[in-house]
Specification:
Strand order of the largest sheet: 4-11-10-9-8-7-6-5
Bound molecules: ligand FNR
Strand content: 5-15%
Helix content: 40-55%
Largest sheet: 8 strands, parallel
CATH topology: TIM Barrel
Number of domains: 1
CATH superfamily: Aldolase class I
Number of helices: 13
Shape: globular
Length: 352
Amino acid sequence: MRLTLGDFERAARTRLDPGIWDFLAGGAGEERTLAANAEAFDRLWLRPRVLRGTTAPPETATTILGRSWDAPLGVAPMGYHTLAHPLGELATVRGTAAAARLPVVISTFAGRTVEELAAVGGGPLWLQVYCLRDRAMTRRLIGRAEDAGFEALVLTVDAPHLGRRLRDLRNGFRLPEGMVPANLEGHDFSSPAAHASTQFAPALDWSVVDWLRSVSALPILLKGILTDDDAARAVESGADGVFVSNHGGRQLDGVPATLDVLPEIVAAVAGRVPVLLDGGVRRGRDVLAALALGADAVLVGRPVLHGLAVDADRGVTDVLNILLAELTDAMGLAGLGDLADIGPETVRRDRP
Ligand code: FNR
């Protein structure tokens, strides 16, 4: 019986080729940041309140950028879900829709087309954008997603090139024969790191937000913000939201856990735009902890691929349902009737 996201992770590992497993699971450098993301959640403890007359079950619905979500939870952008299951993002979007109305962020390097994903229906779809040297190709992708009904753009700003992922270097990782990004054309994509180093736009600066604004009417969120200065700059540049993210420890090893930098970013943003967080979210109580420290919602990455690898769309549904059940369980036991009841007083940092 699989009751936790850890159960899905262990089951997925036995099903995947070791080189693919390393690509999905690994981080950059010594994987300090990868480990820190998970550890940060374990340093927080909950402060339950009792006898509050809280009605059950707790209400988890929220509104982000004018759209209602069933819970403050979404699927982070990851390239090539087809590495975990041949149906790829198609199964992810179907599986998410079967769990709840939750957003899925589709990577620039998705293995399925934006049109076929939009046709599934379900919760909001957002497009993650890597700004390529070939701006015309980037622009075509954005236009197709917008036409298909995608609702926001998530520009990833922490990846001028891909981080030094030692597992992939040691394994000589290449995509399996025939696997290509379904929404891009023309390049040699077989080595993600080599492709990024030659094809990602070099020397991007804040004017890229204006460029995105000039090519699309969709809200623009910046993913990969880790300091208060950059968070403030993002808002001033017109971003409609920020993602506190260290790319799941896959980019600059040695940056802190996202949960640890969240408070300074929340303070800098000061409620002007939504703040989302990803990295190491593995339990319902992790969602609660991030919300207590000021996140509006969290995104979950690798566990969704574990669900996919284990049981296609049904595995994705199961993974998200476990997180949702754990969240409502923790809220109910902590005396929290809805998300507005969650605040800094919901957690404590020291060990009791
Ligand atoms: C990613 N991530 C990522 N981010 C992004 O902006 N564009 C992308 O194409 C990808 N691709 C990608 C592939 C794989 C296999 C992984 C594991 C991650 C990063 C992702 O959006 C997110 O920041 C982290 O995965 C969140 O951390 P957890 O939940 O995996 O710990």
